[in-house]
Amino acid sequence: MIGPGLSLEQKAFVAQLIEAGAANSAQRLSHYTKVSWSVASSSIELMTIAGALDALPVDASTFLGVHMRSRPPQSPLTMESLILFPSTATQSLLEAAARAISPRTAALPNWVDAMAGEIANVIGQALVKAMADRFGSSIILSVPFVSSGPKPLLLAKVLDRVGSKRETIVFGQVELAAQGHPASCTMMIVFELNQLRRFQVPPQHPI
């Protein structure tokens, strides 16, 4: 077993889910922003909610955060996702995406938030589709909720929905990098440990 309750096979399988989803998301982001994106890093850890917050570097920069979640019975597991874009560096890419996805969006007063939600929804759906294909079941995400603030504050708001700070979670983090552009995208995925502890790795997906 690894940590407080996942086997090596379970942890490796969840890591595969996240890696496959991240690659799919980078591909979709490249398509809509007309800039080449790649997965810079991907990790999965078992830690407490307090530990996840403490692990983030101190950064007062403002980010656009898009929160989506999945819940049974519509989905086989409970999952929280937070997709983060640095506010300043990402605006030109959001403009490109607005032209590709929804030209009318750029005319709205709050078009930056609206477009961040649109893009996060596109790459969030790409993430869960790749995960669902390997999981063997559909994963349905909620409507995107957009807010702005420092990265630790945005993550804290999401984790407050999960449980107490002493509760152990399965915390996945993906960094996407844009080639030749200062923009970046951080994807954070939170699973409830108790659900994954009972999860059996599908035999058609050996580790």
Describe what this molecule looks like in 3D:
The structure is a single chain. This protein is of the alpha+beta class. The chain has a single domain, classed as CheC-like (Chemotaxis protein chec, 3-Layer(aba) Sandwich). Helix content is 42%, strand content 26%. It is built from six helices and six strands. It has helices spanning 8-33, 49-55, 87-101, 111-135, 151-159, 193-197, and strands at residues 37-48, 63-70, 79-86, 145-149, 168-178, 184-192. Strands 1-5-6-3-2-4 form a six-stranded antiparallel beta sheet, with helices on both faces. A hairpin with an 8-residue loop joins β2 and β3 (79-86). α3 (87-101) crosses α4 (111-135). The longest helix is centred in the N-terminal third of the chain and has 26 residues, at 8-33. The model has no long low-confidence stretch (mean pLDDT 81).
**Portion in strands:** 25-35%
At the first level of CATH, the class is: Alpha Beta
From the coordinates shown, what is the CATH architecture? 3-Layer(aba) Sandwich
Name the overall outline.
globular
* Annotated CATH topology: Chemotaxis protein chec
- Tally of separate helices: 6
Q: Look at the helices and sheets and give the structural class.
A: alpha+beta
Question: Main traits of this protein?
Answer:
single chain, 207 residues, alpha+beta, Chemotaxis protein chec, 6 helices, 42% helix
